[in-house]
Write a structure and sequence with these properties.
The chain is of the alpha+beta class and 135 residues long. The protein has one domain: 3-Layer(aba) Sandwich (Endonuclease, Chain A), CATH 3.40.960. It is 51% helix and 19% strand. The chain is built from five helices and four strands. A four-stranded mixed sheet has the order 1-2-3-4, sandwiched between helices. Helix 3 links the parallel strand 3 and strand 4. The radius of gyration is 16 Å and the shape is globular. It starts with 7 loop residues before the first helix and ends with a helix.
Amino acid sequence: MTRFGRTSSKTDRARRLRGAATLVERKLWSRLRGAQVGGFSFRRQHPIGPFIADFYCAPLKLVIELDGDQHAERRGYDAARTRFLESKSIDVLRFWNTELTTNFDSVLESIHREILRRSNLLSANHVNLASSGRG
């Protein structure tokens, strides 16, 4: 059984996408890789079910999507992707490419705030499970 329906063809496509990353994707990846933001590692162009997430942090169940101009015409597809990910308890942060090019530090701050919020929730859940004898 493949995790979230991952297939070898989806993995191959993700590898091709990593090799053809846009300037904006490479710029954000340079900051997300190696747990530089909030101490959590991300995966780039990660297959999840029938979709490939731009950036995925497994421990936080968080996807970061970068949307270029083509996404204005693909709202239905993006909405279906978001619904699928949310059905797997994965949240999605979306940013337009123009946000990254014009206000990169603000985007990083938004991502960092969400990582902190989610990591605090993880910590609280761990403490609650441990104190109830289930951790």
